[in-house]
Specification:
homodimer, 377 residues, mainly alpha, PX Domain, Substrate Binding Domain Of Dnak, Chain:A, Domain 2, three-stranded mixed β-sheet, three-stranded antiparallel β-sheet, 12 helices
Chain lengths: 377, 377
């Protein structure tokens, strides 16, 4: 496991020492793509239908078409090739029923977009041949050939570590490696708990906001309007201002009911989606970390293995070097994760709070108007 | 029932024709009073304690002291003397346990104030001897004498109608009277339903606002703060801005939780109190209306009674006149009720909406601040 042939220069994945520690080598221009325009296609003379999405990378600006199953194919390739070092989050769930419903297609597209954006942001993935093929194949023939080549790629699994090159960086001590590993493991577990907690709270809040709460505002609205129509039947002159204002106030609370019910789609939705993405991502880490842990164990047994002549002293040195490389990779990956996490949570919290502010301001505005309809005293 | 001696000039209750129909004669200056400053007093060398309230009318500006049982005495006198024509709302409930607790005393005082304000506003009550005694007795002796006199007053029950004088107004047709009676009866029943509906909705909303809703905001707040402290443990440099902002956002939702829980006391409370008052008031009307209905029945039987010599033709004319007077009184009372209702509901809705606007504006303000703590991108 620890001894693999050296990689060819072209495929080497460089790691540098950045301000925050080891980091991947990032491309100068950030790759990005847009997933849009879902279209129904048919095959076998209309016997089979599917949804095709247009994927446009910012490099070529030329859209290519992909079905969900192509994304799934890409996912499998990335997992095989990079999964040992890079957590590859799952795709949005497969679904059999209702997959031609507009709401579902929109949601899947949004999640495929989120997944692709995350993949584009990862320097190892973004620069890989298979990912580039997916984004910018020239024609069907190009795609078919590329596919076949990728499927035959033998540099998969733990092979990734032999292509990683912490260029010029000193070997790490296995104890340090172990320590880093533990620390990151603790962090991802804690974050997993935090994310799940937020998701649970968010789900309950969603239910309340779309269920009992708007019903209650609606009932308040109806009660005001009902009182208004009773007042209207009094036969007493000169209370039109009050009854009109009361009706208006009632309608305002009905408006608020609708607003409350619609609001989660505008803010909580994105908070939930981001946390769902992170839940998926965090779920990949135990495996990634596990690979490292077993490598470290092996290195720690090194002296024993040499003593019992199971490996040569040279092998032992190679093993230690490889474990060090793995730790550099893990640390680069951690730093990539952290910087993305900061970016994503900052972004989604801003969006959430922005929409919440708008929501409460709009309610205040509506109520102010309702208030102005009553006679000042 | 229908034949009573004519009143003396001084006690006559005049009814005029106003723009909206028959109205009571209102005093030039509106009577008002302040109920304040509850103090614990003792009797029998400290064996018995009670709460005494200061009641200060705007006429004398001199406070007089009254215990709850004095208010209750006043209520009984007013009910005896005016209850047939004027709905006298019940006092706030008697209570045996916890009646020295601050919260209870405050609430009772507020309700006694509400009751007194309503009584002060009624021209028949406000100008009555017993009410004036209650508000402005000079000393203990004056109070004791006045009490005894009021308790001996024989002009009670249906006698009120013989003191009412629709000065110079033509007698009303019994059919018209019956119609007016029916209309008002329908209105009060419908309003009673409307008020009870609003009270039910309000109670449920109160429960939600003080129970599950703030708990949920609190949990959202805790989830944000929890995530912030997980982030804080990442060991990654330079995310203090995010973790601080996330903590801030979490605390903001905890603040909102408190605000949500406190809000009903600031707005819903007054809406509920007003509706509770009206529920009480509306509960008095069936009796008032019943007195009229039976009078009208008697008048409709008039010809038969004359034919069978049970009454004289002169009695019949007197009966019709009295029924007409009763209807004038009912209409004056209706118009009094309607104008007060418009005033009270306009006032309480303005107050409610004003506080609601403040509430939502404050939340928006707090969230805006929380939003500003995140890094702009």
């Amino acid at each position: 496991l620890l001894s693999k042939p050296a990689p060819k220069g072209k495929d080497r994945l460089l790691i540098y020492m950045g301000e925050v520690g080891p980091i991947w080598s990032y491309p100068e221009a950030a790759l990005d793509c847009v997933v849009a325009d879902p279209k129904k296609g048919t095959k076998m003379y209309g016997l089979k239908s599917y949804i095709e999405y247009q994927v446009s990378p910012n490099t070529t600006n030329r859209p290519v078409n992909h079905r969900y199953k192509h994304f799934d194919w890409l996912y499998e390739r990335l997992l095989d090739k990079f999964g040992s070092a890079v957590p590859i989050p799952s795709l949005p769930d497969k679904q059999v029923t209702g997959r031609f419903e507009e709401e579902f297609i929109k949601m899947r597209m949004e999640r495929l977009q989120g997944w692709m954006t995350r993949m584009c942001r990862h320097p190892v993935i973004a620069t890989s041949e298979v990912f580039q093929l997916f984004l910018s194949y020239k024609d069907e023939k190009d795609w078919k050939m590329g596919k076949r080549k990728a499927e035959k790629d033998e540099a998969v699994g733990a092979m990734i570590f032999s292509t990683i090159d912490p260029e010029g960086l000193p070997d790490l001590d296995p104890i340090d490696v172990e320590h880093k590993c533990e620390q990151f493991s603790r962090f991802t577990r804690a974050m997993d708990d935090g994310v799940k907690d937020l998701l649970t709270v968010g789900q309950e809040h969603w239910k309340r906001c779309t269920g009992p709460l708007p019903k209650e505002y609606q009932r308040i609205g109806k009660a005001f309007q009902n009182l208004s129509s009773v007042f209207n039947s009094s036969g007493y002159e000169g209370e039109a201002t009050l009854t009109d204002a009361l009706t208006q106030a009632g309608k305002t609370y009905e408006d608020i009911a609708l607003m409350v019910a619609e609001q989660p789609k505008k803010d909580l939705h994105y908070l939930m989606e981001t946390n769902n993405e992170y839940k998926g991502l965090l779920g990949c880490f135990p495996d990634t970390i596990g690979v490292h842990k077993s490598a470290i164990e092996k290195v720690k047994e090194g002296d024993k293995l040499v003593a019992t002549s199971k490996i040569t002293p040279g092998d032992k040195i190679t093993m230690a070097k490889r474990a060090s490389t793995m730790s550099y990779a893990l640390q680069a990956e951690m730093n990539h994760f952290h910087s993305n996490r900061i970016y994503d949570y900052n972004r989604v919290m801003r969006l959430y709070l922005e929409e919440q502010v708008k929501f409460y301001e709009t309610i205040a505005e509506k109520l102010k108007h309702a208030h102005s309809q009553f006679t000042a005293m």
